[in-house]
Automatic annotation (TrEMBL):
InterPro entries, alphabetized: K_uptake_TrkA (IPR006036), NAD(P)-bd_dom_sf (IPR036291), RCK_C (IPR006037), RCK_C_sf (IPR036721), RCK_N (IPR003148), Trk_Ktr_HKT_K-transport (IPR050721)
Annotated RCK C-terminal domain residues: 140-222, 366-447
Gene3D superfamilies: NAD(P)-binding Rossmann-like Domain, Regulator of K+ conductance, C-terminal domain
Matching PANTHER family: POTASSIUM CHANNEL PROTEIN 2-RELATED-RELATED (PTHR43833), TRK SYSTEM POTASSIUM UPTAKE PROTEIN TRKA (PTHR43833:SF5)
Domain RCK N-terminal residue range list: 1-120, 228-346
Name of the protein this chain belongs to: Trk system potassium uptake protein TrkA
UniProt keywords, alphabetically: Ion transport, NAD, Potassium, Potassium transport, Transport
Organism for this UniProt entry: Xylanibacter ruminicola (strain ATCC 19189 / DSM 19721 / CIP 105475 / JCM 8958 / 23) (Prevotella ruminicola)
């Protein structure tokens, strides 16, 4: 596949690195030589030029591109570049935007006519992940499929868990209401077999159905975690605004922002919300005490500084907050943040890159998430008529090592999958993929794939 990306910022460079590992034909365009120079160690062609130069787009091979991605910091540049790329012959285009109005479903045909196949607003995607996490205070990461018909939960295991130090074959057999698809232990990712055991400190990924979420909470020993009602958010950027606008009605949100003018803007943007905006520094212990940190169930640090967010979450934990969320945009800090046990980690560029990456797959992929902690992806594939995955029971499919099918949704009902399960055409199938290229997996789900 040929992919052209304009914008060597955080999202563009991360997506380029991801594609270079997949050995895709990728070219990265930016008008800043220094930004492009940082990509020299990766298998990515770079081209220093204006993203909206027709000559440059032609020379970069846009007329033959399977996917054109506009992810510069400027929304108008991204939209214009995609319009030009479509006119030149690019098969699919996607633009990063920062205007929420453009995401309205009624406007999709309008943008499609302009030549934009998809719009990505990273802050909105991050806000969805934040609020999904806040709804379950005892979960590190949550991913719902088909309105929660199937749910994947990433849970840190403590001493109270009743499923520790027992072979998984005795815990989650074919008739049990959950599967464990991955375990993060120290710096290692384990794709578990029946003889593997869960240990204290593991980050375990459970696949289950929504009716069994309370049961999972019990067996992992998290029943004493109180539900989130009071939330303090630090930093008043776009991600905070989108998160505050979409928190459930039963949650009360306070936002702490250092800049006085930004506080005024936040009050305008959130005037119809049950949200209090406070001018101050979220690291000020006295201010946190004054604003009721001891009676707060969740602390969300969303400044642009990863170190500030990590330290603020550590402080909040010491002050008794159970649920902490930190935005960590510098990927070099992600493993450190996890080792410090700060809680949920949000990274906008990996979230955005996942949504863009799923457009590259030929199979019917409805959703794709990157799990930073376990260096893996979870993808929702739809099984095509006459595809290989429908020919045999799961145990006989010959799936590559590192690939696990966790569950499926059939006619709106979530079902867990075991070795004897038979996947049918039209099923939405949840595939966990570690250290495997997703384009090696999609062939199982494509119609009349050649073997």
């Amino acid at each position: 596949m040929k992919i052209v990306i304009v914008g060597a910022g955080a999202v563009g460079t991360h997506l380029s690195k991801l594609l270079s590992r997949e050995h895709q034909d990728c070219i990265l365009i930016d008008d800043d030589e220094e930004r492009l120079a940082k990509m020299s160690e990766y298998d990515v062609m770079t081209y220093c030029a204006s993203p909206t130069s027709i000559r440059a787009l032609k020379e970069a091979g846009v007329p033959n591109a399977d996917l054109f991605v506009g992810v510069t910091p400027e929304e108008s540049t991204n939209i214009n570049a995609c319009i030009l790329a479509h006119a030149l012959g690019a098969k699919k285009t996607v633009a990063r935007i920062d205007n929420y109005e453009y995401l309205a479903p009624s406007l999709q045909p309008f943008f499609k006519n302009l030549g934009l196949d998809s719009l990505i607003y990273p802050e909105v995607l991050a806000a969805i992940d934040i609020n999904n996490g806040l709804k379950l205070s005892w979960v590190r990461q949550r991913w719902d499929v088909h309105d929660g018909a199937l749910t994947m939960l990433g849970i840190k295991l403590r001493e109270q868990a009743e499923i520790l130090n027992q072979p998984l074959k005795d815990l989650c057999g074919p008739d049990d209401p959950y599967h464990i698809v991955a375990i993060k232990r120290g710096g290692d990712t384990i794709i578990p077999s029946g003889m593997d055991e869960l240990r204290v400190g593991d980050l375990a990924y459970f696949m289950t159905t929504k009716e069994y979420i309370p049961y999972i909470r019990k067996i992992v020993g998290k029943e004493h975690y109180t539900d989130v009602k009071n939330v303090i958010m630090m930093g008043g950027g776009k991600t905070t605004v989108r998160a505050a606008l979409t928190t459930p009605d039963y949650m009360h949100v306070k936002i702490i922002e250092k800049d006085a003018k930004r506080c005024e803007k936040l009050n305008e943007l959130l005037e119809n919300q049950d949200t209090m905006v406070i001018h101050g520094d979220g690291r000020d212990l006295g201010l946190l005490e004054e604003e009721g940190i001891r009676n707060t169930q969740a602390f969300v640090a969303l400044t642009e500084n990863a170190e500030t967010n990590i330290l603020a979450c550590l402080t909040a934990k010491k002050m008794g907050v159970r649920k902490t969320v930190a935005m960590v945009e510098n990927l070099d800090y992600v493993s450190m943040a996890e080792s410090l046990d700060i809680g949920t980690i949000i990274n906008k560029k990996t979230i955005a890159a996942s949504h863009i990456y799923q457009m590259l797959l030929d199979a019917d992929v409805n959703n794709l998430r990157s799990l930073m902690m376990v260096d893996s992806e979870v993808a929702e594939f739809t099984a095509a008529e006459d595809s290989k995955v429908t020919k045999k029971p799961v145990k006989d499919l010959g799936l590559p090592f590192g690939v696990t099918i966790g569950g499926l949704v059939r006619d709106g009902r979530g079902m867990l999958v075991n070795g004897n399960s038979q996947i049918e055409a039209g099923d939405s199938v949840m595939v966990f993929c570690h250290e495997q290229k997703l384009n090696n997996i999609e062939k199982y789900f494509k119609k009349n794939a050649i073997w």
